[in-house]
Amino acid sequence: MLLNGKPEELTRYSKLKYDAKLFIQKAHELWEYSDLQIRCVYLISDLAKKGRGVFSIAYSTFQKMFAQQFDMKISLSTVRRFFALMEKIGLLSINEAKRKNEQQSANVYIVEQQCDEP
Question: Which residues form the domain of 30?
């Protein structure tokens, strides 16, 4: 189980030199996304920037951020299924996390793949 923290602290779990454009490019190579899913990919790419490919977020918080950024609604079940898809195709790993006070926390997501730098 990983220890959750601020984005800057989560960088210790990073597995690559994160680049949002290369992540998005790899996502498009691996799957044909719906319009809603494409928006999710872009939101994930933004979330992963501060932690250099690592971020922590609750599904409900992702749902709220999505609604604010795109002025669209997304269901919690759609958010859960989308993150499961990202893990299934190998773009993200989903890791249980705990806070420093040992309480269960939001999952930590680690970007596992992106396109190679040109």
Answer: 2-106
